[in-house]
Specification:
The protein is α/β, with parallel strands linked by helices and 332 residues long. The protein has a domain of 208 residues: P-loop containing nucleotide triphosphate hydrolases (Rossmann fold, 3-Layer(aba) Sandwich), CATH 3.40.50.300. 36% of the residues lie in helices and 20% in strands. It has a 6-stranded mixed sheet, sandwiched between helices. The chain starts with 18 loop residues before the first strand and ends in an 11-residue tail after the last helix. InterPro entries: AAA+_ATPase (IPR003593), ABC_transporter-like_ATP-bd (IPR003439), ABC_transporter-like_CS (IPR017871), ABC_transporter_ATP-bind (IPR050166), P-loop_NTPase (IPR027417).
Length: 332
């Protein structure tokens, strides 16, 4: 499969765009149900990758492997921070995940929901009890709430800081959920169809919010700093994956597994992995840029009649080597 190895990674300002996530020949099955087979890819720090596929092809299962919620049946899923590769064996604060169903506590306000993760991660019950006596916990909680409020204001929710989830629109609740994940400063953010239940206008608004995060990545790389946000976005919408991501991957069960000697499908695998055009958060949605790639993805990833040879269409890193595309893995 297409590899990141031997890629010249030095970028403007001397910053290195390094691999942050590697999925190496990973397969996953539940009892006798084969869900994923031979999934193999590497993601560079600061990328936003759109992950596409038909319903039931294993997109959420892939995110759960990366989140550490489940373990692969075979193969390795690993992260690489500060040059040290570590196999994922369970959940951790370095990986945040946001689902389509808003994971908010109904009895907490927006700011309390966002700060809740800091409370659990940075303190223990005994420490909080002792902190009540010394005043330490009250000071720390004020800091947590201040940080959470600043993040909500940044996401355009300054007027909703003290509102409860039932008082918010769907789009506002999803912004709170993303802020709830980002306040932990995860190395990798996993989004599982977070905008699927939203109307088109709200959905585009949140897509642009992700593009703002990508602009922060490009700015950081240009200054010789590590990009702060690496995101995998699972979606059914081809246009959304192309618009938000700098790279689009497609999972499918309809690949040439018969030629590999299997009598039945051993699971979905990555059949498509290519560069996507990079948009600014203020750009209009130019569907002409989407047209060719959208049709290609529709055929290769979603058409059940097509048997894809994955090696023919998983060419992202080969495209990067010839400087095809823009963004954090290219010249900025």
């Amino acid at each position: 499969m297409d590899s990141m190895q031997a890629l010249p990674l030095v970028r403007k300002g001397g910053c290195l765009v390094k691999p942050i996530l590697t999925v190496s020949n990973a397969s996953f099955q539940v009892r006798k149900q084969h869900i994923l087979h031979g999934v193999d890819f590497t993601i560079g720090r600061g990328q936003i990758v759109g992950v596409l596929g038909a319903s039931g092809c294993g997109k959420t299962s892939l995110l759960n492997l990366i989140a550490g919620i489940t373990r692969s049946t075979s193969g390795i899923v690993s992260v690489n921070y500060d040059g040290q590769e570590t196999e994922i064996v369970g959940p951790g604060p370095d990986r945040g995940i946001v689902y389509q169903a808003y994971g908010l506590y109904p009895f907490l306000t927006s700011v309390e929901n966002v700060a809740f993760g800091l409370k659990l991660h940075l303190t223990t019950i005994p420490r909080r009890m002792w902190g009540q006596v010394t005043g330490f916990w009250r000071r720390l909680r004020r800091e947590h709430l201040k940080h959470a409020e600043e993040l909500l204001v940044r996401f355009g929710l300054g007027d909703a800081v003290h509102k409860y989830p039932h008082e918010l629109s769907g789009g506002m609740r999803q912004r709170v959920a993303i802020a709830q994940a980002l306040i932990m400063k995860p190395q990798i953010l996993l989004l599982d169809e977070p905008f699927g239940a939203l109307d088109e206008a709200t959905r585009e608004d949140l897509q642009r919010m992700l593009l703002v995060l990508y602009e922060e990545n490009i700015q950081a790389v240009g200054q010789g700093k590590p990009a702060p946000h690496t995101i995998l976005l699972v979606t059914h919408a081809i246009s959304e994956a192309i618009f938000v991501g700098d790279r689009v991957m497609g999972l499918s069960r309809h690949w040439n597994w018969e030629e590999q000697g299997f009598s039945s499908c051993p699971g979905a695998t990555v059949v498509y992995d290519k560069v996507a055009p990079v948009f600014n958060s203020t750009d209009s949605v130019d569907f002409e840029k989407f047209f060719g790639q959208k049709n290609e993805i529709a055929q290769l990833v979603f058409d059940e009649k097509v048997r894809v040879r994955p090696q023919d269409h998983c060419t992202f890193w080969s495209q990067v080597r010839v400087n095809h595309g823009h963004g954090v893995t290219h010249d900025v």
